[in-house]
From TrEMBL:
One Pfam short name: NPHP3_N
Keyword Transmembrane helix (UniProt): no
PROSITE patterns tied to this protein: C2 (PS50004), NACHT (PS50837)
InterPro entries recorded: C2_dom, C2_domain_sf, NACHT_NTPase, NPHP3-like_N, P-loop_NTPase
Organism: Favolaschia claudopus
Cited Gene3D superfamilies: C2 domain, P-loop containing nucleotide triphosphate hydrolases
Annotated ranges, domain C2: 1-102
Keywords recorded for this protein, A-Z: Repeat
The protein's name in its UniProt record: WD40 repeat-like protein
Domain NACHT: residue ranges: 375-524
Amino acid sequence: MAETYSLLIQNTEGISKIPGGLHGTPKLYVAVDLDGSCVFKTHNEESTLSPRWDFTGNICADLPSANLTVEVHHKGVFDTLIGRCHTTIGELLQQSGANTVVKLDIKRKGSISGHIFLRLSHVSTQELQEAATRAVQRMRGDVENIERSPGNPRVMGIANAAIQAEAMADNFQPLLSKLLSQLEPIVEMGDEIAKIHPYINIAWKVLTSVYKVMEKQRNTDEKIVKLVQAMVQLYSSVGDMDFLRDKINSLENVVLEIAAQTLECSLFIREYTGHGFSGRLLQAAFSGMETKIESLSDVLMKLKDSFDRGVIIQSVFLSAKMNEKVQGLVESDLLQSLKPAQYNAALRDECLHGTRKDLLTEITEQLSSTTTASDIIWLYGVAGSGKSAIANTVAQYFRTLHRLGAFIFFDRDNPSTSDIRGVLHHIAHRIAESNIHVRKAICDALCADATLVDADYRTQFQRLLLDPLIAAAPYIFGPIVIIVDALDECLDSTSRKALLSLIAGDMAKLPPAVRLFITSRPDSDITRVLRAKSHVASRQLDITTEDTKRDIYLYLHQCMQNLRIEWPDLEPQWPEEPYKFLQNFDPQSRLTQLLDAGEIINSNLDQLYCVALEHTADWSDSTFSSSALSILACVVLSREPLTVKTLISILDPVLEGLKVAKALQYLACVLQYGPGAPI
């Protein structure tokens, strides 16, 4: 039988600051959870880090072993967790014997952030009866007042509806605030949880944006409140930072799936509350939403159980997309008529864990955001700078979330990938497989016109992609990401020109939920078309930054560690000794000695640069070739890095400045430069 207890929240002490950035005047309150569910919270105490509430709340618990969590928060634009303590009903009751106020440590990220003073006591049967009597009397008085109002039935209905709406909003905001406070310390862990951090980071930002908007309106309902409550219950287990660190090592797949499912639920909440890519969705899009929310909540509880028990389970990830698997034979045959180009990413490398962190975060956030003005991101850089590894990593990120619409990568050694017809058919086929509404619209178009697969590329884009996606836009939950890697390796000049034309013009008409990520070298034709477009966000992959140097160090360190695994008999000082050897008086000379001694010859980069230069311009044009060779000679032989201005002054007696600037555009595949920056 459930027992009723009275919990006194007296005061805190020892809190020195509010974590994070500037928060203004302190506004502290306490939230109390029982077995992961919010029981009550105190009022706000302002202008002090040593507040005193003297607040009493009642708790009903079946067993003394029920888990009690007490958290201290700062109330801001979104709430900030200052610290929490964990105990049980039985433990706190025993400590509070003889009406004693108990001092407990509150912790944040494993460190003590202050102390809180509590007292727990039984509530007697007589006290419960007296409280119930007072509540009934208040209710009778309220009902009598309403009944005396004119238009009695209508007034009663409006009052009841208002009370219910207020209760829903009051539940949603505190729950969302609590969830944000649970996710915030995980976001702050950063590098310690490199694999799950990108998912949690974006989930936190998505939910923060929802919180800020929903704080100003009260139009949520019970279904979405239940989903947020399930997320809060999940993170009541995951939120212990020390415990999470240990679990990442033993339950990596479970923790990764928790992070991915958290982001998926966050995207769903954003769409459901009307603040996603398409604004308020059509009512028809919500058919079956109660079942969908229950399914998402069930998955969260399964993950919580797996995490709590330390048991590895088969993947239970559930996408909130409208992706019913029912597909008739007629639709299947129609889609097969597309004969899409095949792209197999099985052997493509991703970024080494821990590298490209800021850039990957920037790209994934922008592709997931509803507030960016640009629906297309173009990442460009010199040959061999790692663009394809970044594209592969971004593709895997959105594949994990079931948000990857299509992944296209051109290969100059495989001409079949360069046909514009195959590219469009591949995108249409992949997106049709992921969304029932897009699939129906594409199949209707193919059924109405069997010759559509042979039409000109603009007609195919319009009928197979643009029209179906616009028709299905109200039913698209979250982003659909299309990735095009190595656009410069599309060697079919006609297809390349057509694809650039679509990117520069028609693709801007796609629904906001459809996002495009493109990588390429800064070839002159690509640069000329994409840089001038407002809907394309250009981003240079700069190889001269400190982050790039750090990533190179991490890569080399990992390679040397791999050699140690492959050759366990290496000297104990490996990999320190080779590094110290290179650090000496003349690193370049020492590197030459080291390479010569080991007979290591690696011409891959030479071959890569040769291929890049070969395809960037017409080298049979003597004017261009002489200009390009003069520029390359100056850059390679110069003892100090040259700026464009210095290069022009050196070559001015031989070449005109205009020729130097023009030739540099065609050498951008191997030379990185900018105004005033060294080449």
